[in-house]
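Hello, quick one for you while I still have it in my head. A protein chain has come my way and I'm curious about its shape. I'm sending you its amino acid sequence along with the backbone structure tokens. I'd be grateful if you could look everything over and explain what you see. Here's the protein in full, and shout if anything looks odd to you:
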Amino acid sequence: MEIKNKNMPRAVFEKAARGLFRAFGGIKLVKLFGGEPLLNFALVRHGVSYIHSLGFAPDFELGTNGLLLDGARAGYFRRHPEIQVNINAAFGVKREFLSLPNLIWNLCVLPGAQEEAVALLGRLAGLSKNTHSRVNLLPASYCEWLPGQLAGLKRTAREMGDIIRRGGLVFENAARTGTVPLFNDGPAVDTDGKVYRTNLCLAAMPQNRRAKLLLRPGAAAAAARKKDLVGIFGLRAAAASFAADRIMWAGIHE
């Protein structure tokens, strides 16, 4: 991902919200992402309130590493259960987060650290016993998976499936809903207000290639295409991502 160290100005958020809800009136979900959205928590709060002030009541998702999720911020999310908080479990599994009404733990399985991912899921299951905590399990995307690592992923996925069933966890992303692994379908707004047809715009790439992802006036929102992925990440990494994706879900359900 490209790290820009830029915040979206409030006026840009408001203009984007007005335009997108006018163009796509049936929007049911708004994702707030970065970077780390909690670094600009004031905009998170304002953005949710502003969209409500327009007369819309979508669900929201916010992805965070949890490091800035202090008592005040957690209190806000407890008062706003329409906001799903996705916490990266790799940065720490904390019992106090279990009080959030709409919490999902994200856990990424890296090619060379599969045993560590299984152990982390086990700790999460122990912490969350009898709470039916929800988890997203994601194989690392758009990196190289060696044949032996993909074979190991089959075993890893089976072990994770066993932990989920024994621990009473809820496997949230039981199937991929987007067109491609990791990236979402639908329009995405960058910090400068430019609107793209997918949040693939978050990936590091030359500006001329990013420009091809812009959502053109009058066009329907689209998804990332396989040829976009190959152009940005290379054929080997793109193919490995789809393979890991298939292996992960099949193994968990065995």
About this structure: The radius of gyration is 19 Å. The longest strand covers residues 103-109. The mean pLDDT is 92.
